[in-house]
Amino acid sequence: MSVPSDFHGRFEDLKRYIAWSDADDACSEELLRRLEPYFEPIVQDFYDEIRKHRAASRVITGGEKQIKRLQASLRLWLVDTLLAKHDGSYVDRRSKIGQQHVEIGLDQVYVNAAFSRIRGTLNGVLCRQDDLPFEERIALHQSLNRRLDLDLAIMSDAYQTEYQFRQIPVDHARLKQQKHLALLSRDALAGESLDVLYDQAVAHLMETLQGDCAEYLEFHPADSSFRLRSAAGWTGAAIDDVIGLRKPESYYEFVCSYKECIGIIDHDLRTDLDFPPLLREQRVVSSLQVAVRNEGQIYGVIGVHFHNRRQFQASDCDFLVSMANVIANAVHRKGIESQRQQSEHQLRRLIERLPAGAVYVAGGQLQVNQAVESMTGHARAELATLADWEQLTIVEEQERVEESAAKSPEGKIVQSEVRIRRPDGEERIISQLKFRSAIDEIWLLHDITEMEEQRRQQLQAERLAAIGQMITGLAHESRNALQRIQACTEMLELEFQPESQEMKLIGRLQQAQDDLQLLFDEVRNYAAPIVLETKPSDLAVLCRRAWEQTEPQRRCRETTIQIDGMAEVPFQADEFRLVQVFRNLLENSLAATPDPLVVTLLFEKSEDGQVRVTYQDNGPGFDENIAKRMLDPFFTTKTKGSGLGMAIASRIVEAHKGQIQPISQPGCGAKFVMMFLGQD
């Protein structure tokens, strides 16, 4: 009893048909771990059922001892089915089982039924694995069914080949049936739609059994009806017509009560059955029908009918039952697939409606929801990969090093914050919750820009209040000391000649005293709350006023100011404070730029009413590091100064609902851009 070499080629074709992949091999251990605890009751149930069927149990001639041996073999087969490497050795082992079934006289129909019973039980066990995520459970279901499909296909192939080899003469009718069954099985494994499989099954019945009419009826549990889904040879019936009902003592309840084929040789002699009107209208004499089921769940009924009396062979019943099993397995798989697709659709809708941004990452590819598009200003097509996301983020070099050194651990939620730049140039702060598994990542994103800004403002207000309290106390405590210093220096001036060295030292002492008093005043002004007194003003006029106030610093120097853009820039402003802002910028330019100094201001107004002021000089400019710190309090590059000028200017601009941004362009002059929200 040898295994034909073409078995191996057909087996490779079968693997391709059912889309067997490395993922199926990878889940072998998990399937065994989940299912092995249930092998004993499955084996016991299997042989208990065999004892109830005379045709199946007649092949067991060794009594209980043989059953014990067969039970052990079945356990080994279950383990081997889940763990087997699907190579040539595996094909040989399964082929020999099919050949042995022929040798002991076990009809293939019982093998198919046994597979159906075992398949249903194993799938039921997986359905109850509540600790498994839905997607993983579906994957295990699919892989289990593929394994069983491969086993059954090889055994069936070997059985058919061996049986044909032993038949002298060859039973051409049975070969034809097996050929059509194989074609239907192939298409079912290839994933054909149910409607196509129903039509093919009906066509195979008509051709192989030479029937006058055949049909597949689909069962609808909602109203217990059987509806026509596919038919051949029928007159007066349309698809989706109700053909009969499943109710007590009805004909279709009788058909569904049997797991085997129902063969009726003469309808006129079966007065105990109430046949559906359609069968009487078609003048049906003989019928062969079977319920399409999976472990008690009825999917439908498939049958073939004859206008003349017909004697049915065992092979006819086997063929119809096998065809019903193929359809039942296809319906079961399609049901699982439909549930999975429905679940995925519901999950996608849920994620799409989330107010938070949701990102799924697998293999460097991204899937994002609508909230992420709104948050980033980019369409999904522009956020397809991790590289696309990285182009959005603004990360310092040190942060990149730290991020690379501390990858988020698998199975834990890690929270972080990232800064992104939208296409319009606006920067946003995003809170990122990241969950990483071995194969994918899930991100949950929240835009916390406004919250961070409020927190920054609150923190700054608290700091300013603390600074104000400290400086007020310090100035109060120092006033007496400064006054004593002032009195002493004035008395000392009376003791020395105006041009003496001592008078120069006294002058320096008085200057240090004045500088200290100025520092107290600047810090107190910076820390004090800004209360604006606004009125209709012209920004260009305020800029010229600030230029005029710098006249003492510009005396004897070559300086020019150019104001471009709008001739008049109406604005609700606190004139004193905005003049202070422009004067601070001008004084910095005067201090940093050699003659000739050229200052240019450009005033622009957008359609939405925003006012943009661009300040530019022809000095040395500043680098990126200075630009980032320039607005921080107490930061200065001058040898003299408190470092509060630009910080105060920034606070004044923000109080006018605006922002000031230093632009780094070393060697090309200092540049500042001020943006003010539109005003009615």
Q: How does this structure look, described?
A:
The chain is α+β, with helices and mostly antiparallel strands and 680 residues long. It is built from 24 helices and 19 strands. The strands form four sheets. A six-stranded antiparallel beta sheet has the order 3-2-1-6-5-4. A six-stranded antiparallel beta sheet has the order 8-7-12-11-10-9. A five-stranded mixed beta sheet has the order 14-16-17-19-18. α1 (6-17) packs antiparallel against α9, α8 (108-127) packs antiparallel against α9 (134-166) and α10 runs antiparallel to α11 (194-209).
**Approximate shape:** elongated
Helix share bin? 40-55%
How many runs of DSSP E, i.e. beta strands? 19
Query: How confident overall, as mean pLDDT?
Result: 83
The neighbouring-strand order within the major sheet is 3-2-1-6-5-4
